[in-house]
Design a protein that fits this description.
The chain is an alpha/beta fold. It has 3 domains: 5-54 and 166-331, Rossmann fold (3-Layer(aba) Sandwich), CATH 3.40.50; 57-155, Rossmann fold, CATH 3.40.50; 342-403, no CATH class. It contains 14 helices and 10 strands. It has helices at residues 31-36, 57-70, 88-100, 114-122, 139-149, 163-177, 200-215, 271-285, 291-305, 310-313, 335-338, 347-356, 373-391, 396-403; strands at residues 27-29, 42-47, 80-84, 103-109, 126-130, 153-155, 191-195, 223-229, 265-269, 319-324. The strands form 2 sheets. Strands 1-2-10-7-8-9 form a 6-stranded mixed sheet, sandwiched between helices. It has a 4-stranded parallel sheet with strand order 5-4-3-6, with helices on both faces. Strand 7, helix 7 and strand 8 (223-229) form a beta-alpha-beta unit. Helix 2 (57-70) crosses helix 3 (88-100), helix 2 (57-70) crosses helix 6 (163-177) and helix 8 (271-285) crosses helix 9. The longest helix is centred in the C-terminal third of the chain and has 19 residues, at 373-391. Mean pLDDT is 88; it is low at 2-8 and 366-404. Bound molecules: pyridoxal-5'-phosphate. Residues 55, 57, 86, 88-89, 195-201, 245-247, 290, 292, 325-326 line the site of pyridoxal-5'-phosphate. Residues 20-309 form the Tryptophan synthase beta chain-like PALP domain.
């Protein structure tokens, strides 16, 4: 990492389309969490939801499309792009398709959020929901079936496309190295932590890191740690269900290089750990990250608190990069998010109730601290009378009506 914060800017001038606003994401110091965890090293988050389509996968979608156009596999206005994805690669492809005039079909496992589906539709993509990973009816199986029977259909295939890791080699890595850090004595990456889905992110980053190590053998080696959900086989363990989206598989994607020297260590993280860390980042760092970002942070903390991570954790000059792949926009309807980060007792809420002399009327309801969509509705019904007695009922139509 090098550069000067005064002359670094992530976008400047007029961009020709949203595709130019892919990547160029900020590296943000997670200082509050670092301090609360008693870590001496710097925790730095590469915050990918700032990218145009909202995730790290915009980068690979853009590169896969541009390279396929160069070699004639994709013809704007004619080709149909089909991709099996957990949603974010689809978002990048749908974004490129909307701008370049491709038809786009996304095959999406049932587990993936409604938010992803509706955002994809808004961009004009067609969606097929699929039941599972490993049958002919899986998102991959259905994508192939559609491709084989549709003229001009192309699967760019993030699982095997070399442009997936190369997007990170050529964009994510140089961005990290160029991030402003003129006040850092050490400008190298000591530890980098990322979740693995296709493995494109971690493989591309580690390829770039290892090449740099060859070019500068006098510099310290970077430790590369991959994070994997409990229930995925990539980092070991039995296949099973888990709720975090975008990372983990029950097969090894072709682009993933799971062993050393690419990846030094794997850390397993469960859903509870991932979602707790997601909420912590939103609450303490004001970063609206998604679930797999919580996995990455949880994995980083587990590693740093383990004996292997001690020398980095206790070094005030060490830089730890954590890839935060997407934002909570994708998960607003999920129970883990609706449950919120607040505990059941909250003195401020009690005080507010006391002052205004009634329930607060928000999703937290009666102060149990356990909101849910169902509870929110009940709470709404229960409070309707009370609130409208005090405030008079305000309807959206009334507000809109006034400005007509
Ligand atoms: C939310 C999220 N996190 C992490 C990843 C993992 O990235 P990669 O496929 O590069 O391993 C993905 C990939 O789709 C994702 O959607």
């Amino acid at each position: 990492m090098s550069g000067n914060s005064a002359n670094q800017h992530h976008w400047s001038g007029v961009l020709s389309s949203a595709l130019d606003a892919v990547g160029h994401t900020p590296l943000i110091h997670l200082k509050r969490i670092q301090e609360a965890q008693g870590l001496q090293c710097r925790l730095l988050g590469k915050v990918e939801f700032f990218s145009a389509g909202g995730s790290v996968k915009d980068r690979i979608a853009k590169r896969m499309v541009e390279e396929a156009e160069k070699d004639g596999r994709l013809i704007p206005g004619k080709s149909v792009i089909i991709e099996p994805t957990s949603g974010n690669t689809g978002m990048g492809l749908a974004l490129a398709s909307a701008l370049k005039g491709y038809q786009c079909i996304i095959t999406l496992p049932a587990k993936m959020s409604l938010e992803k589906e509706v955002m994809l539709r808004a961009l004009g993509a067609e969606i097929v929901r699929t039941p599972s990973w490993d049958s002919p009816e899986s998102h991959i199986g259905v994508a192939h079936k559609l491709r084989d029977s549709m003229p001009n259909a192309v699967i760019l295939d993030q699982y095997s496309n070399p442009n997936n890791p190369l997007a990170h080699y050529h964009t994510t890595f140089p961005e990290i190295m160029a991030s402003p850090s003129s006040d850092f004595e050490n400008k190298e990456i000591d530890l980098i932590v990322a979740g693995a889905g296709t493995g494109g992110t971690i493989t591309g980053l580690s390829d770039a890191i290892r090449d740099r190590e060859k070019a500068f053998p006098e510099k310290n080696k970077t430790t590369v740690v991959a994070v994997d959900p409990v229930g995925s086989i990539l980092g070991g363990g039995e296949p099973g269900n888990y709720a975090v989206e975008g990372i983990g598989y029950d097969f090894f994607p072709e682009v993933l290089k799971p062993n050393a020297p690419s990846i030094d260590d794997w850390v397993k993280v469960n859903d509870d750990e991932a979602f707790a860390m997601t909420k912590l980042m939103i609450r303490k760092e004001a970063l609206f990250v998604g679930g797999s970002s919580g996995s990455a942070l949880a994995g980083a903390l587990k590693y740093l608190h383990s004996p292997k991570g001690q020398s980095i954790a206790s070094n005030p000059n060490a830089n730890v990069i954590i890839i935060l792949p997407d934002g909570v926009r994708n998960y607003l309807s999920k129970d883990w998010f609706l449950e919120g980060a607040q505990g059941p007792s909250n003195p401020l809420r009690e005080k507010m109730r006391e002052i205004i002399g009634r329930e607060l009327g928000d999703a937290y309801g009666t102060g149990s601290g356990v909101p849910s969509t169902r509870k929110e509705k009940k709470n709404d019904e229960a409070l309707n009378g009370e609130v409208s007695d005090k405030l008079g009922s305000v309807h959206l139509e009334d507000v809109v009506g006034e400005s007509k």
